[in-house]
Design goal:
Oligomer: single chain
Strand order of the largest sheet: 2-25-24-23-21
Number of strands: 37
Shape: globular
Length: about 525
C-alpha cells in the first residue's frame, strides 16, 4: 500500500464556485508536494524500445477478450423524458469531399496474428508526424508513410510499453499523439494485475517514430486506472485518468496529472521529471484534455455532468509550470443543451445484438485560437419523426479573454441511424473535422447501409452556426458486429481520432472504425485511415 497524502494544490472555481465537499484532494503516491520532483520512483523511467525490434508475445494462449466499459452507470439507460430529447440540427446540403488518401489501417485480425487474441472494443487512436501516420488500436500498433505503405510491421503494444506481463500485468486503452512544437511523439497505455494500476508514458527521441522511444511508469497500488487521455501544450503534458476500485469497479474520481514537457522531451530519469498531480475529483466523470493546436500558457480540459441527465459542461484551465511549483486548475460550469445517455445502437439483421454507444462522458476535445470544441455521444432525434438515436453532441466555447462563453451547442444525427464515438480536430484554417462510425437496423447483407461503417464530416468557420456539412462514408461495414458470446450490447469505440497533418496543416487524417466481415469474421473490426481536406 502506498501512503495516502494530502497535497496543498490549488483548484479555484470561477467566481465563488467551489468543489462541493472537498477543500483539498487526496493523492495516491509518495510525491512531496505538487510541482516538486517526484521521489521514491513514483515516476519511473523503465527503458527504451523500437517499434521494429519488439519480441513476439510469449504465450501459447489464444482467445477473445471483451473489455467491459467502466462507467458511473453500467446501463445505457436514461432519466430524460422523451419530450425533452433534442432534435438534431439540420445538415448543410454540401457534402464533404472525397478523401485524398484512404486505406485500411489496423484490424482485429492484427490483434489475433500478433497477440493470439482478438479484442473488443477497438479503442482507436491515431496521430500524424512529418513523414508518418501512426495508429494504436487496442493491443497493437503500426506506422505507415503518407501513401499508406507500411513503414513497420504490426507490433504488440505490451512489449512496446514494457508492460510487466511476467508478473501478470495486462495492457489496455492505448493513446498516441504527435507534438509539432517539440517534434516528438507521445503515447499512453494502461495496465493492471488485479491489485495495482499503471499508466505507461512513452516519449519518442525524434520526429521519426521508428527511432527509439523511452518509457516511463506511474504506478498506483489499489487503484484501477482507466481511460487515460493525453493533452500537450507549451509547457506541459497533461494526462487524465478515471479511478476505480478493484473488484467491484466503484468509481472514486477523475485525476489530472501535469508533467513538465521539457523534462520528458529531455528523457530525464523519472525522479528528475517534475510533475503535479490533482484529484481524484469525485463530482465529475472523465476530464478530457484538449489537443492544444496553437500556443497558449493555459491548457483547456472539459467534462460533462456525471449523471444520466444534465445541462452542464465544466471547462477547466490548467496554468503554471510543474518545474516552478505553481500549477493550478480553475474551472467554470457552462449551461449547454440538456443531454443524457445515448441508447444502444441497432445493427442489421433479426436478432443481431445492439452496439454499446457509451455514456455521457466527453469523448474528445480540441483547442485552437481561442476555440474549444468538445464532443460526446448523447441521445437526440435526428429528425422530428425519427426515433431517439445515439447522436453527436458538439459544443464550441469561446475562450478569449478571461472568460469562457458557449458559442455553438448542437446535436448532429442521421435519420434512421446511430452516430457512434466521434473524434475531432481543427485544421490551421479553422475547419472542424469529425470522424465517427454509423450503424442502423435493416436487412443483413455485405452492403447493408446499417452495417457499422466509417464516416467523417466537417464544418468550415464560415458555415452557419450550429451546422455540419453533409457527411461522407469512408468505408461501408460488411456485416453486423458480433464478438462476444451472448454479447448484447456489443462493445464499440471507446473512441476514434482525427489529427492535423503538420506538413499540410489545412489537411487532417481521420481514423474511423467499421465492421470487417461476417460469419467467421463477425467479431472483426477494422480501422479506416484517410487524409481529408476541404477546399
Amino acid at each position: 500500500m502506498t501512503r495516502r497524502r494530502i497535497l496543498p494544490v490549488a483548484l479555484l472555481a470561477a467566481g465563488l464556485l467551489a468543489l462541493a465537499g472537498q477543500a483539498s484532494f487526496d493523492w495516491f503516491g509518495d510525491a512531496a508536494v505538487a510541482g516538486t520532483p517526484n521521489v521514491d520512483h513514483q515516476i519511473q523511467r523503465v527503458g527504451t524500445v523500437r517499434m521494429g525490434d519488439l519480441p513476439p508475445r510469449q504465450s501459447d494462449e489464444t482467445g477473445r477478450i471483451s473489455i467491459p466499459r467502466r462507467s458511473l452507470d453500467p446501463s445505457s439507460g436514461s432519466d430524460q423524458p422523451d419530450s425533452d430529447v433534442a432534435v438534431a440540427a439540420p445538415t448543410l446540403n454540401s457534402a464533404v469531399p472525397v478523401p485524398l488518401v484512404n486505406f485500411q489501417g489496423l484490424t482485429n485480425n492484427d490483434n489475433a496474428n500478433v497477440t493470439g487474441f482478438t479484442f473488443d472494443p477497438p479503442d482507436t487512436q491515431g496521430a500524424v508526424g512529418p513523414n508518418h501516420v501512426c495508429s494504436f488500436s487496442n493491443n497493437v500498433g503500426r506506422c505507415w508513410d503518407k501513401t499508406g505503405t507500411p513503414a513497420v510491421g504490426v507490433f504488440d503494444l505490451e512489449p512496446f510499453f514494457l508492460v510487466d506481463t511476467a508478473n501478470g500485468f495486462a495492457g489496455f486503452d492505448p493513446v498516441i499523439d504527435y507534438d509539432d512544437r517539440s517534434d516528438r511523439w507521445f503515447g499512453l497505455f494502461a495496465s493492471e494485475d488485479g491489485d495495482t494500476g499503471v499508466i505507461h508514458v512513452a516519449v519518442s527521441g525524434a520526429a521519426n517514430p521508428l527511432q527509439p522511444w523511452t518509457i516511463y511508469n506511474v504506478t498506483f497500488e489499489d487503484v484501477f486506472l482507466d481511460y487515460p487521455h493525453l493533452g500537450i501544450s507549451n509547457e506541459m503534458i497533461i494526462v487524465t485518468v478515471n479511478d476505480f476500485t478493484f473488484g467491484d469497479d466503484t468509481y472514486t474520481g477523475a485525476e489530472v496529472w501535469a508533467f513538465d514537457k521539457d523534462d520528458l522531451v529531455a528523457l530525464l530519469p523519472g525522479n528528475q521529471v517534475n510533475a503535479s498531480f490533482f484529484g481524484p475529483f469525485t463530482n465529475i466523470f472523465t476530464i478530457q484534455p484538449a489537443h492544444q493546436l496553437s500556443s497558449s500558457l493555459k491548457h483547456y480540459m472539459a467534462g460533462f455532468a456525471p449523471n444520466n441527465q444534465g445541462n452542464k459542461m465544466r471547462v477547466y484551465k490548467v496554468t503554471g509550470e510543474p518545474s516552478a511549483n505553481n500549477v493550478a486548475i480553475t474551472f467554470k460550469d457552462l449551461t449547454v443543451n440538456s443531454f443524457s445517455f445515448p441508447p444502444t445502437a441497432h445493427q442489421p439483421g433479426a436478432g443481431s445484438p445492439r452496439l454499446d454507444s457509451g455514456d455521457q462522458r466527453a469523448l474528445d476535445a480540441v483547442w485552437r485560437g481561442n476555440r474549444l470544441w468538445v464532443v460526446a455521444d448523447h441521445r437526440c432525434k435526428p429528425h422530428p419523426q425519427d426515433a431517439i438515436r445515439s447522436c453527436m453532441h458538439l459544443v464550441e466555447v469561446n475562450t478569449a479573454g478571461n472568460d469562457e462563453v458557449v458559442r455553438q451547442d448542437f446535436f448532429f444525427g442521421m435519420r434512421d441511424f446511430h452516430i457512434l464515438y466521434p473524434g475531432l480536430t481543427i485544421s490551421a484554417n479553422g475547419t472542424l473535422y469529425v470522424a465517427f462510425s454509423r450503424s442502423g437496423a435493416g436487412a443483413t447483407s455485405l452492403t447493408a447501409p446499417g452495417n457499422p461503417s466509417a464516416w467523417y464530416t466537417a464544418r468550415e468557420s464560415s458555415d452557419p452556426l450550429n451546422t455540419l456539412q453533409g457527411p461522407r462514408q469512408l468505408f461501408r461495414g460488411r456485416g453486423p458486429h458480433i464478438f462476444a458470446d451472448n454479447g448484447d450490447p456489443e462493445r464499440w469505440g471507446d473512441y476514434q481520432a482525427a489529427a492535423v497533418d503538420p506538413s499540410d496543416t489545412n489537411a487532417v487524417w481521420v481514423f474511423s472504425e467499421y465492421q470487417l466481415g461476417t460469419g467467421a469474421s463477425a467479431g472483426r473490426w477494422a480501422i479506416r485511415v484517410a487524409k481529408v481536406k476541404l477546399p
